[in-house]
Amino acid sequence: MGESVNKNNIYEVDEHPFELRHEVKRLNARLDKIADSLEKSEFRDILENYTDPKKRIVTNLMAGISRGLGLSLGTFVILGLLGYILSLFLDVPVIGEYLGEIKKYIDANS
């Protein structure tokens, strides 16, 4: 059926033909490159984050809070600047009347 492997027949790289030694060295070099790229990409840290549910929950919670706070502050700043710029146009004939009505509505409701 299958050939049995004799564990006593362990060959050294130097005992193999030149082509095989060259191929083994080439494969070792490729494995070293793969190991280096995995270290650079912090693959272990990524795996730890995705396999530890508590760590993933805390990370996602902090990300959600940060996004929500950033969105709220950004909206506040943009609307404030827009309101200030529009208040400069109150003296313009057509636009000023419309903006004046909006300002009266806002003042009445606040």
Task: Describe the 3D structure.
The protein is mainly alpha-helical and 110 residues long. 76% of the residues lie in helices and 0% in strands.
Keywords:
disordered N terminus; 110 residues; 4 helices; mainly alpha
Shape: elongated
Strand runs, count: 0
In the predicted model, the low-confidence regions spanning at least 5 consecutive residues are: 1-7
Percent of residues in β-strands: under 5%
Please estimate the helix content: over 70%
Element string (H = helix, E = strand): HHHH
- The number of helical elements comes to 4
Rg, Cα atoms, Å = 34 Å
Main sheet specs: none
What structural class is derived from the secondary structure elements?
mainly alpha
Distance from first to last alpha carbon: 89 Å
Mean pLDDT: 80
Kindly report the oligomeric state of this protein.
single chain
Q: How is this fold's topology laid out?
A:
Elements: H1 18-40, H2 43-51, H3 53-87, H4 93-109
Provide a brief overview of the structure.
76% of the residues lie in helices and 0% in strands. It has 110 residues and is mostly helical.
